[in-house]
Amino acid sequence: MAANENVQRRETGSTFGSIIGRLVAASIILAVTAFLTPGFTISNIWALIVAAVVLSVLDYAIAKMFRTDASPFGRGIIGFILAAAIIYSIRFIVPGYNVTLFGAVLAAIVFGIVDAIIPGRAL
Predict the structure, then answer these.
(1) Containing domain of residue 40, as a range?
(2) DSSP 27-88
(3) Which of 10-14, 44-48, 105-109 is predicted with the least confidence, judged by mean pLDDT?
(4) Do 106 and 7 form a contact (C-beta atoms < 8 A)?
(5) Residue 18 lies in a domain
(6) 9 vs 71: which has the higher pLDDT
(7) What is the distance of C-alpha 66 from the center of its chain?
(8) What's the Cα-to-Cα distance from 103 to each of 10, 21, 36, 50, 78, rounded to whole Å?
């Protein structure tokens, strides 16, 4: 019985570590993307953290509901459109996060490139 509890604890710990790792990766990638993309600004660190959480939650929800990858290079044009829509829709949820429609399209491209360079699954 104790062996099963230890395995269960390790799985929970690795899941928590995975979530934190994805959040950190999403924050870094989102910050780099905002820095490199015209028409896309994040005003402070709290807006960045909240946007990364919202981005991760929306990506997870879309992946589970539609069984598709919402990363810019996940499912070709569908993944790219979903990534741009997620990046754009966050502006209505997070104060201090501003992006234009054109900026969201550019950000989806930059996000995909940066996500491919930085290890970890963010979007």
Answers:
(1) 23-117
(2) HHHHHHHHHHSTTEEE-SHHHHHHHHHHHHHHHHHHHHHH----STTTSTHHHHHHHHHHHH
(3) 10-14
(4) no
(5) no
(6) 71
(7) 17
(8) 41, 26, 10, 19, 18
Token digits of residue 60: 């997870």
pLDDT for 120 equals 54
In a domain, 12, yes or no: no
Tell me the residue type at 24.
V
Q: Looking up tokens 């710990």, which residue turns up?
A: 13
Domain membership flag for residue 2: no
42 pLDDT more than 90: yes
In a domain, 50, yes or no: yes
Cβ atoms of 56 and 46 within 8 Å: the answer is no
Number of domains in the chain: 1
